Prior knowledge:
This protein is of the alpha/beta class. The chain is built from 32 helices and 27 strands. The strands form 6 sheets. It has a 9-stranded mixed β-sheet. Helix 30 crosses helix 31. The longest helix has 24 residues. It starts with 16 loop residues before the first helix and ends with a helix.
Amino acid sequence: MSNNVDYHRSPYAVFSGPNLGYVMEMYEVFKVSPESVDAELADMFRRFGAPIIDEGKQTEAIGAVAPADFSKVLSAYKLQDAIRTYGHLAADIYPLNDRPKDSTRIEASYYGLTDNDLRAMPASLFFITTPPNVAHGLDAVNYLKSLYTGKIAYEFDHVIDEEERNWIQAKIESGNVSTQLSVDDKKALLERLTKIEGFEKFIHRTFVGAKRFSIEGLDTLVVFLDELVRRSEEEKMTKVLIGMAHRGRLNVLTHILNKPYEMMFAQFAGVPDAPFMPTDGSLEVTRGWFGDVKYHMGALYNGETGMQRYLAYNPSHLEVVNPIITGQTRAAQENTAQTGIPKQNTETAYAVLIHGDAAFPGQGIVPETFNYSRVRGFKTGGSIHVIANNMIGFTTEYYDSRSTYYSSDAAKGYEVPILHVNADSPESVIATAAFAFEYRQKFGKDILIDLLGYRRYGHNEMDEPLVTNPVTYHSVHEHPTVRSLYGAELVEANVLTEEDVIALDAKVIATMQTAYDKVKEPSAQTEALSNATPEEVLAGYPRDLETGADESRLRRINEELLAYPEGFNVFGKLTRILKRREDPFNGKGKIDWAHAETLAFGAILQDGNPIRMTGQDVQRGTFAHRHLVLHDEKTGEELVPLHHISGANASFVAYNSPLTEAAIVGYEFGYNLEDPKTLSVWEAQFGDFANMAQVMFDQFVSSSYSKWGQQSGLVLLLPHASEGQGPEHSSARLERFLQLCAENNWTVANLSSAANYYHILRRQAKMLGEKSMRPLVIVSPKSLLRHPLVGADVSDLTAGHFQTVLEQPGTGKKATKVEKILFASGKVAIDLAERIKDGKGFDHLHIVRVEQLYPFPSDKIADIISRYPNAKELVWVQEEPKNMGSWKFAFSYIKDLAGDKDISYVGRVHRASPSEGDGESYKIEQARILDEALKK
């Protein structure tokens, strides 16, 4: 059947000869005096503009339409348009049939038309190429209704691109959104549904009351994924990555990732599942020592065709996995083994994001993920979204969940086509999967399938839903399962007998029982899992890892960074600023923070590690300090100097991200999971912006290794410090990151040295992909970015390693006179250094700058304390309020080292807000802190 369907079928196409002349004459009148033209005709002109008709068709006998019938033609056009636009409101898409259908706007009478009016109209009014068996307008209307009000409903009028709309409409109206299954295919589909349902039934009966968040009511989600897998393998894709919450996860693990029944049943029985792990390497699972519940776990399946299927590990924060999966997908698509921008092939991998119907419109991470789906630094060629729509959120009915008609409405603003499908119609579900895959491949855009079903049990299997949702659950209890419905359909079609359907169910349950019987006798040699922290984790990473680079190497990198192609016009003021980066290599000035960073990046690229840096304004830097991407002043053309470093053999990108913290942090975490050798860096515009990504830090970055055995080397840069700019741009909430510290899970640093920043970046890169890899949280500076006391000499970068503590020059020279030792971290340490200058008059104290807060450098601090036998007091100095910053975290460590020495605190008192609201108040309080810290 032809796909030649024009979405914008013009109503003028039915006019010819005198009729066309009349229309054109009336249009000329309309242009001068709209009110003098018949209202219906005026409306047509407003909607469709001038009556421009293909000259070759003006003489075709399309059907004579008298001037008096113009309103009928326009009404017919409105009717057909309404069927395409509003047919979904009357569609048969709800298995429980518990939502009213609205067919008002798709009835002929609504437009003043009768069946006879429609019979008198040519079918060509509705189609360019008329489908078979459509003889006239009434046939056309009925045909359109059959397509747009069936088990699949469509919303695509919000898609702006005309090619996309035409393609979608052509697919629908040519009858191509359907699946033609052979008898054997239908039998296989029923067997698949029987396994899906049988798995849930067996667990329900065998492990009474056990939580599993069953798929029942949305069984065809697995069928949908089956079709995607089949088509992906046909296209020879390398990876399909799936992100989903807990509802139905165990069934997906079992039937899409091919996790053996024995492994699942072992987990329910509380015995080790390792003896049942496939020995052929087809299944890969990771697990942390502290573990997680079974319905949060993921897996990787290596298919026989070479395509991998991956299900992401995900806690119960539902939609937060979306950006993580898309980040992993981008990494799976990219080749980073050459200089410049990574080579991306969106045909190799794609993401399938399975959403909850209450979470999809309710959680902000969803629009954040849609928002970057076509942004250059984050696009993946389209994700396939599925709302696993059981019409309820925990105990909340849909009318208390959202303000929109559908759960899916939030996607319309991103021009995402939406297909609603009845989950009780497995063949329709397969058709939508095929449609979604084909659309994604053709247009490289996201698409959404709203899979409408129900939830057979409560939120979990111990709930009694009749308490809170009695009407819904009386309907659910009376409703047959999709396997029963499809089995009855095949019996009625003489594909199978009732006995065949019953026997199939018995066969599947017997298979499950056989698997469980194996589980009941676990291997005696299998050791029980321990949740003790592994020794290799406790060992941390290599101490004092050498990270210097030869001066000649750094000099060459620096020269290449400042060499621009002929004809490239860097902004004049910026040219002078960057030109100063030659000075330190000529014995003048210091290497500032951004300069040290760029030199570190150059050396890291030469060592073979790709770098990916994202965040709001990272190319220039929030504080106009970085300038990794230059723009031609005249043409706007971009230049990335790090793409032109000799000896580099890895890619580099710095992308300004959308104004989104949670999604971008998740994206970069996912990218690094998939490609652990890439140095992935996310920078907050200001450190407090990281608040918006707290769930990512809590549930993923800090704990993924402990829970799921997933290591990450993600770097977080969080500008932080009190400088009189008010509370919201002062604090990165350092205390929250410190509170999450345990088991060497990440490194937290508050640096006061550009050289140390250089070395910690180099150290991080050297650990990527190694057992010692862990995330790095850097509380980075603002006012210190260009401070001379923070700057480095070239010699500071050529040798040595990251220093966990730095001793302030000019203090502590006369050990016996030191009465107190000040410990400070970050900017306040530089404030102290400015006050003491060369140390004259401050023999009574020694200042220690704690650069790495976790793992806390207790051994080095203990060594420093031991050198000052007459010190009576250890003082922790910070500018943050006492209930914030690092004081409470550091206190327990200092206490263990203090011996008989007093421990005291100097800083702001307990506060509800991180900083004063005005600059003058800040200066007064900051001066008080410094005076108190330095006094004898």
